[in-house]
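Technical annex, item 7. During the second reporting period the consortium partners agreed on a shared format for inverse folding records so that results from different sites could be compared directly. Each record opens with the tokenized structure and is followed by the designed sequence. A conforming record, contributed by the partner at site C, is shown below for reference.
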């Protein structure tokens, strides 16, 4: 639930981002679109014409890949805003200390931060979806519908990663988070190929990741077909990461900044 303090903090972040948004254009917009063009159009022509197309009945590889990249884009944007910027606010620039010197509480700070990340992720996935529709990967209404579970996927990463960042002292731990967390998920959570093609022993690991649930929900909305599991299960898992991550983030921030 948004509070007046959270709204004020979100407004502050938005005003700052209005002057800094150009620095995030490549990572937020251009990289996923280049992936879509290279993998979807280039490699996709080979997949569609070969044995790999049998795993994607009724869909081109471009149509399969586009919603997966939409969810992965949400994950990457959310992770980017919940690692070094959060550590800077805690340790380097100490803007969080200045914020808490006002009537804004720790809970307001975390909710405002997550609200800003969600808004930024939502804008990124909508732009990506409309561009993917221009490639012919999905219809425009489907692209807008798919942006909803994609944005929820971003929030499902932003909350627990914010909690993690609030507990670490050195940013080398954040590098490890990317190296052993987000990058493997990007590659092996159904973005580029069905998880069913993974070895049997590894599949359960993929099923436990929030990205797989986000990819399945986003792909189901984009293609108009039922995901692997019921949509309520996928969204329920994502909601669990959001709620649990938010609670942990508030707890970790309070321990770090107040006690």
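Designed sequence (site C submission):
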């Amino acid at each position: 639930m948004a509070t007046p303090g959270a709204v004020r903090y979100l407004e502050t972040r938005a005003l700052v981002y209005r002057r800094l948004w150009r620095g995030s254009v490549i990572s937020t917009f251009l990289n996923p679109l280049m992936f879509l063009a290279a993998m979807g159009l280039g490699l996709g022509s080979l997949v569609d014409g070969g044995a790999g197309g049998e795993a994607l009945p009724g869909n081109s590889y471009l149509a399969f890949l586009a919603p997966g990249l939409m969810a992965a884009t949400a994950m990457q944007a959310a992770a980017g805003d919940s690692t070094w910027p959060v550590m800077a606010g805690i340790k380097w620039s100490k803007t969080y200390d200045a914020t808490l010197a006002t009537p804004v509480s720790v809970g307001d700070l975390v909710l405002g931060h997550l609200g800003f990340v969600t808004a930024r992720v939502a804008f990124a996935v909508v732009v990506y979806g409309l561009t993917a529709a221009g490639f012919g990967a999905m219809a425009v209404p489907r692209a807008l519908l798919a942006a909803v579970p994609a944005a929820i996927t971003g929030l499902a990463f932003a909350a627990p990663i914010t909690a993690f960042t609030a507990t670490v002292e050195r940013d080398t731990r954040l590098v490890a988070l990317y190296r052993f967390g987000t990058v493997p998920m990007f590659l092996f959570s159904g973005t580029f190929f069905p998880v069913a093609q993974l070895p049997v022993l590894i599949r359960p690991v993929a099923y436990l990741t929030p990205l797989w649930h986000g990819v399945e929900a986003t792909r189901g909305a984009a293609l108009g077909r039922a995901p692997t599991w019921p949509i309520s299960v996928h969204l329920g898992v994502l909601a669990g990461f959001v709620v649990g991550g938010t609670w942990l983030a508030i707890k970790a921030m309070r321990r770090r900044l107040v006690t």
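DSSP finds eleven helices and no strands in the chain. Residues 56 and 168 are 42 Å apart (CA to CA). All partners now use this format for quarterly exchanges.
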